[in-house]
Every structure is written in C-alpha cells, then in structure tokens.
Amino acid sequence: MKITSRFTVAVHTLLVIYTFGKEQKVTSDFIAASVRVNPVVIRRTLSSLKAAGMIDVKAGSGGASIVKDLKDITLYDVYTAVDAGSDEQGGLFHFHENPNPACPVGKNIHTVLDGHLADAQRAMERELEKVTLYDLTQDLKKFTKFVF
Amino acid sequence: MKITSRFTVAVHTLLVIYTFGKEQKVTSDFIAASVRVNPVVIRRTLSSLKAAGMIDVKAGSGGASIVKDLKDITLYDVYTAVDAGSDEQGGLFHFHENPNPACPVGKNIHTVLDGHLADAQRAMERELEKVTLYDLTQDLKKFTKFVF
DNA sequence: TATCGCTGTAATTAAAAAGATTACAACAAA
DNA sequence: TTTGTTGTAATCTTTTTAATTACAGCGATA
C-alpha cells in the first residue's frame, strides 16, 4: 500500500470542517475548493471518515460536522480510515511476487524479509499515532491568528 | 516516493550474489531466474548497487561480486541505493498538490503537516537501518542448512 | 408536495507510474 | 573474431490513481 494523497486530502478535509464548521454549512464543493480536487473525491473522503465515526454528513440538506473529539483522532486513524484496503495485503512495501521456489534464496526471501518490512511500517505508523488532529488545529492557529 | 519492488529485488539480488558468488559466475540472467523478473530489471538494479559501492560488475565477461562488508550494508542503504530519486521530492507520502492559497487551511496545510510526515518517514527509515545484509544471510542459513 | 441543493455511488475516462520487453552497442575473454 | 555478457535507450503494457460524468435519493423549505 503506497500512501496516496487520500490521506493528506482527508486531513485537509477535517481541518476545513473544523475551521469553518461553526460559521457555515461545509459542503463537499466548499471543501473541494480549498483542497482543489474534484468534489467527488471529497465525497468519497467524507464517506470514509463518516464510516470511521469521525464526522457526520447530512445527506440532502448537506454539510459535514465533526462528531469525535479531535484529541482522540490521530493521523494514524485518518490514514487507516481512508487508505485501508487500498492495497490487498496492507503492506507499505511492494514485494516482487514470484521468487523462484527452486532457489534457496527465492524460496526464503519472504521469510527473512517480511518481518523487517513489517517492523519498518509499524515504526512509521507509530509516529503517525503521536499526532492528533487537535495538535494540527493548534499549529494552524499559530499561522492564522494574524490573518483574522 | 512510494516504495517499489526495486527495493526487495535489490535485497534479493545481493543475497543471490552472496549465496552463489563463490561457486559460480553470477550473471543478470542467473539472478533474474531466482527473482523471476526480466534480466534488464536486474541489470538496472546491479547498476545502482554498483554506483553505491556495494558490488562490482564485470562488463563483457560478466558476473557480479560483493565488494563491501555485508555488516556495513543496511536495508536502508539498499533502499536509498535503488529507490533514491524514484520520486522527485523524496517523500513517502503523496501530497495533494494545489491547495487553495486563498483559504487559511489550504494556505497552511503543508506547513502543519510536512514535518510530521517527514518524522514518520524517518521512523521507518531508522528501522531499516537496524538490519544489515549480514543479518539476513544468517537468517537465510537457518532455513537452508537442512537443504544443503 | 414540488423544488432545490446536496450527498452517495457507480461507471467511465484520463493520467501517471512502474515494469516488462526489445534492441543493440560496447566490452572482455577465450 | 566469436561468444556471452553488460549498459542503456526506447517503447510497450499493465497497474494504479485521480478526474469526471451521470444520476438516483435525501431533506429542508417554500
């Protein structure tokens, strides 16, 4: 599973909902205008975030709102919410698929490598777990407080 | 930079050279038969590993050999040798490219996220630094000693 | 209850990225 | 000088991702 832009789009989306949600109805078109992607991409993102219990989306009347404490949403949570299943076996690394089983190296390459690759991926994920969406809103404030 | 199979192919390649190098000439065709990819893919891999000072490749007569102590080659070294520059800006994460600068979120999303993404990538890379190719050969022996 | 704006989602197209493959010049040894 | 191999460019194929089109369904509201 290579890490696609779905992840950064989702983080961006949550921050837009947080930033504007109290003042106005935040629609997929509105978010799309900030992220600059097609609104359908945002709707799919909203769908994933909703399934993960992070937001509520009003069908019909429109508008998304955050329903989970941002202190309880980590970057890792967002990452799994939108990127889970984007690749069948969940690996960050692409493994060449058909090593020759008749060769002692080809036969065992998976066995000797897979664990280390999983460790590396877990290390990355643990780092994402350290950062909450709340942290990001605080950082955002630093940069926007002079603008408003 | 998503992590392509170049990385696992390169590790596989080094292990094949190590395993068979003393007994026979290890050509790109031979390695390709173990990895099961096109020989040209192996030649490109060999080219990168050679540029990184890990192996020597004999043009003309053919054959690759390891010239650096495997204890001094980490998975991270292999990773950078073959995957460096596979993506322009070196990021593991794909960032959506044109956030709207007129929006306070779009304007600052990079600033608040980039550091955390870089941290996550570094955590992954540090984990790869912990494993040497020598370690892998020892693991391989465990699985092959009953075969030979 | 008819309308309007918006969501949900399927289907299709386009674009990008990665490998595979073809081709062939250069090279080294026998 | 023949043979087997490397180095590398060029081209296709495949896969993946994102963009786009299309439209049914929903909910507020007039």
Gyration radius from CA atoms of chain A, angstroms: 19 Å
Strand arrangement, largest sheet of chain A?
1-2
Query: For this entry, what is the oligomeric state of its chains?
Result: homodimer
Give me the CATH superfamily of one domain in chain A.
Winged helix-like DNA-binding domain superfamily/Winged helix DNA-binding domain
The CATH architecture term of one domain in chain A is Orthogonal Bundle
Task: Please tell me about this protein's structure.
Two copies of one chain form a homodimer. By secondary structure, chain A is mainly α. The first copy, chain A, has a domain at 6-86 and 131-143: Winged helix-like DNA-binding domain superfamily/Winged helix DNA-binding domain (Arc Repressor Mutant, subunit A, Orthogonal Bundle), CATH 1.10.10. Helix content of chain A is 57%, strand content 4%. The first copy, chain A, has six helices and two strands. The first copy, chain A, has a two-stranded antiparallel sheet with strand order 1-2. The longest helix of chain A has 26 residues, at 104-129. The radius of gyration of chain A is 19 Å and the shape is elongated. The termini of chain A are far apart. The model of chain A has no long low-confidence stretch (mean pLDDT 91). Chain A binds a DNA duplex (30 and 30 nucleotides) through residues 2, 4-6, 25, 27-29, 37-38, 40-41, 43-44, 46-47, 57-63, 86-87, 94.
